[in-house]
Fold:
Amino acid sequence: MSESHFEAICQYARTLNIEPFAAGLAQFSHDNNLSEESLLAIEDVFRHMAKLKNEAVVNTLLRTSRLPLKNPKTFANFDFSRLHGKSIDRLTNLPALTAVYAHRNLAFIGPQGVGKTHLAMAYGRACCEKGLKAFFLKASELNQRLLDARRMDRCGSAINFLVKPSCLIIDEVGRCVFDKENTQLFFDLIDRRYSKEGTNCMIFTSNRQPDTWSEYFTGDSDLLCALDRIFDEASVFIIKGDSFRGQGLETIKLEAGPAVPNFSK
Structure:
């Protein structure tokens, strides 16, 4: 078996978790004097099987991420031309996913309709497409999850579940207030993810500036100082401008007046 075919098949076999079986193909091809065409056919079969497995993994990750499957938010369908600034390349380079590999959190701050949630969802979807687990929820949903976990005495499992994803997205920070117990659980989550190994980032969206976030959490000053841990290693995008929404809006103006007699009757 030629080295190139053998290396390719071993790579696909690793994806399929059958690498020990692939290792014997070199001896098999030698013993049976397989032709170049036969080796290429074997490689094509392994490539196809690996492709099917990758697609199944990505589909499972997307289904469990809570990201929209119908009309998905992607980097490809985000209009980057609407945003301007001297550091715009920091935004347009988001699809490289360097943040999740560099353990840097992301935050998108700005008024409604400027694309904050779209960008956050697009990042999470791109993570799924690379085989990384992502999970999306609104801050109000997180607040309710923590409240339900306390009622059912399942705080540990609730936090463990939210620590596992490589990319955890919390949308609309500032839309609700966390009580003292939920604030403590929230910072337990932040602390666990802060020390998490491997691919890891959190993404936040908000129409509130980060220096006001403490207003939406309840606790003493020492506890609220833990907010700094979110931004210890983070990239915060402040987006200003008009809303993108309503681009498909059609306004039809009509004027009411006296009824016109219908003489055709």
